[in-house]
Design goal:
Layout lengths: L8 H16 L9 H11 L10 H7 L1 H10 L30 H14 L16 E5 L16 E5 H7 L20 H15 L2
Helix pairs in contact: 1-2, 1-4, 2-3
Bound molecules: zinc ion.
């Protein structure tokens, strides 16, 4: 028997596109599914995908959040633009060792070190302890080449932690992102909301 598409599934999907666009400032990214992007947007809203749950099922399970976010977003409230994956230059082999010597990689690697600091996000070791820091691809280049230059796919690990991790392990050791209400612009957003409500109530 053929599996029937759930009613509203395509409506949910289009809501996810609008949600991602509104929340992340991008409509699509090369090599990343709309569900992955929706999960990233949900994560930014403090809705963190549980380990083992697929991006698709988690995104669709939270479609109601996407619907309400899009429906309620005041047009003039600016969302912070995320750092999105830099395009992979044509001909660049992101799987090769020579990738690690390219300017593009060194640039995004430095961005990750500035973002997180030179401290192992798994065990806490730092150069002061004599540890050597590695910038690690959470989703390995070999399997997710499109994310090779995505700063959101990077974490800082000391050499022993990185060595022990291997290509099969995609554990994200970073701290969870802050909830949306704790972001610096949340107060301003709330103020503008109240302003809109005041206008609406006459
Ligand atoms: Zn470590």
């Amino acid at each position: 028997m053929k599996k029937k598409a759930k009613p509203g599934a395509s409506r949910d999907r289009s809501a996810l596109y609008r949600y991602v666009k509104a929340r992340l400032g991008i409509g699509a990214a090369r090599g990343v599914s709309i569900y992955e992007l929706a999960c990233r947007a949900l994560n930014a809203d403090g809705i963190k995908r549980p380990p083992g749950q697929s991006a698709k099922s988690w995104a669709l399970a939270n479609a109601a959040h996407a619907h309400s976010f899009v429906a309620n977003l005041p047009k003039h409230v600016c969302q912070p633009l995320p750092q999105i994956a830099a395009p992979i230059p044509a001909g660049m082999d992101v799987v090769s060792d020579s990738f690690l010597s390219t300017y593009e990689w060194r640039r995004v690697r430095m961005m990750a070190l500035k973002k997180y600091g030179a401290r192992c996000q798994c065990c806490g070791a730092s150069p002061a302890d004599g540890a050597v820091m590695n910038v690690d691809h959470i989703k390995p280049r070999r399997i997710f080449p499109a994310l090779a230059l995505d700063v959101d796919n990077l974490q800082i690990l000391c050499a022993p932690c990185n060595h022990g991790k291997g290509n099969w392990d995609m554990t994200d050791w970073r701290e969870p992102e802050p909830a949306i209400d704790s972001l610096p612009w949340a107060d301003e957003s709330a103020r503008q909301w109240q302003h809109l409500r005041d206008i609406a109530s006459g």
